[in-house]
Amino acid sequence: MAAAPSVAAMKTLTALLTGLLLTLAVAGLARADDHHRVPEPPLGDVPPVIVEVEGDAADGFGIHYDDGTALFPPTDSEAYAECGEYDRRVARVRCRTEVRVWYRDLADLRRALEHAHGG
């Protein structure tokens, strides 16, 4: 018949098992945390950043990006003229509203960039 383990051996075994379980629990929590991270987008999918907006609605805006490209939307009168080509009144009103909001937002963005650049 085998001898019963001593109280000291039982305490040591319990401490080792508790330590092992705690280590596994912490490792599991750390690994579970990896699933909550926001993945970094691939560099090719990052849209260019607007660095400058110049001009106004009447004369036309110029939108310059950090990659060196630029966009020059039509003036507001050209855009409104294109809106007049829609057949339905609702479509013309929607188009004019989109143009008005677009140019208002471009003017706001231009002022914000000037303010951010200290100008």
What do the pLDDT scores average to? 81
Order of helices and strands: HEEEHH
Uncertain spans, ≥5 residues at pLDDT below 50? none
Using DSSP, what is the number of strands? 3
The domain tally reads 2
Shape: rod-shaped
Termini, distance in Å?
92 Å
Quick one: biggest sheet? 3 strands, antiparallel
Rg, alpha carbons: 32 Å
Instruction: Provide the spatial order of strands within the biggest beta sheet.
Output: 1-2-3
List keywords for this structure.
119 residues; alpha+beta; three-stranded antiparallel beta sheet; 3 helices; rod-shaped
Structural features, described:
- The chain has 119 residues and is α+β, with helices and mostly antiparallel strands.
- The protein is 53% helix and 13% strand.
- It has 3 helices and 3 strands, in the order αβββαα.
- Strands 1-2-3 form a 3-stranded antiparallel beta sheet.
- It is rod-shaped.
- The mean pLDDT is 81.
SSE topology:
Elements: H1 7-33, E1 50-56, E2 60-65, E3 70-71, H2 76-83, H3 89-116
Antiparallel strand pairs: 1-2, 2-3
Summarize the structure.
The chain folds into 2 domains: 7-36; 44-116, no CATH class. Helices cover 53% and strands 13% of the residues. The protein is built from 3 helices and 3 strands; from the N terminus they run αβββαα.
